[in-house]
Amino acid sequence: MAYRLPSWWNGSPWWSRALVLSAHVALTSTLPSLAFVLCSDQGAAAPATPVITREVAFVTTTSDVAASLRGVGQGLEGTWRGRKAAGGGGLTMILKRKMRKRRNSSGDFFVDESCVDCDICCWMDPRTFKRSGLGAVVASQPKTEEDRMRAFQAMLACPAGSIRVMRGDRQVIKALESFPLPVDEERLPGIYQLGPTTRESMGNTPYLIVRPGKGNIMIDVPRYLEQTADQVAALGDVKYMIVTARDNADGHERWKKKFPGMIRILHRLDLARKTRIMEERLDGKGPWYLVEDGFESPEDGYVTGDTARFDFLEVPDEDCAPYDPTVKIVGIPGQTRGSIGVIVEWGKRKRGGKERLGFTGGTVGMSVEKQNLDTFTRTLETDRATLASSVRLLSKEGITWLMPGRGARVMYRTRKEGKADLEKAAERTEALPNLAGNRLLFGTEFL
Description:
The protein is of the alpha+beta class. The chain folds into 4 domains: 3-98, no CATH class; 109-176, Alpha-Beta Plaits (2-Layer Sandwich); 188-278, Metallo-beta-lactamase, Chain A (4-Layer Sandwich), CATH 3.60.15.10; 332-447, no CATH class. The chain is built from 8 helices and 27 strands. The chain has helices at 14-27, 120-124, 145-157, 171-177, 226-233, 252-258, 384-395, 415-431; strands at 3-4, 38-39, 68-70, 77-82, 91-95, 109-111, 129-131, 136-138, 163-165, 181-184, 188-193, 207-209, 216-219, 238-242, 263-267, 280-282, 288-291, 294-297, 301-303, 312-313, 324-331, 340-346, 355-361, 365-366, 373-374, 401-404, 410-411. Strands 20-19-18-17-21-22-23-26-27 form a 9-stranded mixed sheet, with no helix packed on it. A 7-stranded mixed sheet has the order 10-11-12-13-14-15-16, with no helix packed on it. Strands 3-4-5 form a 3-stranded antiparallel sheet, with no helix packed on it. β13, α5 (226-233) and β14 form a beta-alpha-beta unit. α3 packs across α4 (171-177) and α7 (384-395) runs antiparallel to α8. It starts with a strand and ends in a 16-residue tail after the last helix.
């Protein structure tokens, strides 16, 4: 039901109306994410029912005015802007963090001030999005239908919902239906990028490995949307979810409900309140290989799925169950103490042999701005020496496709090229001051 305003409202000075509205903001500050529409009984354009959105917006039938106002509550800082309507003027308050960035190119697509500087749009659609300061902007408006589709896919992948359009477009539905997005249908059939991403993971890119007859593997956790979950299910049952770090685990419970038989895997050192219910906890340094009942390490043994304690069973090499050498988990501490990576042998290379995919989570990825590998030391939990050691370990895996959670993907022509690139990233990391425990909530640091 709409709020009724007194008869003196339209004849009162603007500053008195601003005071009344600011009092309303103060009273509703406990619900900062909701917006209530105030409707006058005068004026044909006044809406009949309240509108609830994710922005704070108050609409009245006043004349056009503009005044600054700071709301009382969490994040209720914004600007009042006049807005004309068929039956009179309008007054709208928009959260400052949802305002359009000034450096956006003029046009339909824009990035607002809530951008968390994750860079996912910049590598998914480099034609449209570019880095500018601490975040991304729309550098060039998409012109063709193909360009708009790519821009919508980047918009959906954004963890903070910071990419917006001035008017609705049904093509965004087609963009949502395009996920899971094939990485390279010719070279890597069955490897998909999942989306959208979660804000808690800072836009960490999740992946899906489709293995007919063996059970699919989900690497890290995408944001749960019923439509996307159905599209993932259409590709087959998900048997394993491998979480590369606890930062990337948000929302795993909802995916477990969608796939009840799924085994969730995380390193024991990354257990937290929301991840203690995971079925498998890896222990030690690895590597761990995929077997029928979980992950097994020929060197260290088998980790039970007991949720009450961390049992580590010493299993001699000759007594290990048969394991699949094409899927291997490696310990790569650095970003967190229990960070892990996944090495997968897949497909065929034109020159013979198989591709070696390295799913590295937030440990190392390609910097769009610097065009070299980045180890994201600004969000480091351990120390840079440990991180550099983990990157060196990855350099020995013969990776031909780097599939990071943070940063852009990289395809190498040869294993030697991949090894050299990772070794250089380790050297750059070692050269930095060895500071520990400097994790921040938002932001990235490029080498």
